[in-house]
Amino acid sequence: MLDDYAQKHDLKAAEFWDEGRMTELLDAYPDVHNAVSAMTTSHVLLARPRQSRLS
Q1: In this structure, is residue 24 part of a structural domain?
Q2: Which residue in 9, 17, 40, 46 is a FRET match for 1, CA 20 to 30 A apart?
Q3: What is the DSSP letter of 12?
Q4: Is 8 in a helix, a strand, or coil?
């Protein structure tokens, strides 16, 4: 399925990422995290105020 999609859109590769891998990406690149913040789950958004209080 992904191989067909990749070929159709002239991509070298495509793959599914699980939550752990996505979290690693977003933690490593805050600018990416901010850019996709509307698509992140509520537990990420709810953690922000708590992290601010703990700092």
Answers
A1: yes
A2: 40
A3: S
A4: helix
Q: What is the number of structural domains in the chain? A: 1
pLDDT at 48 over 70: no
Q: Which residues make Cβ contacts (< 8 Å) with residue 16, sequence separation at least 6?
A: 2
**DSSP assigned state of 36:** T
| Domain limits for position 27 | 17-54
Tell me the whole-structure pTM to 2 decimals: 0.47
Helix ranges, 1-55 (H): 2-8, 19-28, 30-35, 42-54
User: Where does residue 11 fall: left (phi above 0), alpha (psi -120 to 50 degrees), or beta otherwise?
Assistant: beta
CB of 54 closer than 8 Å to CB of 46: no
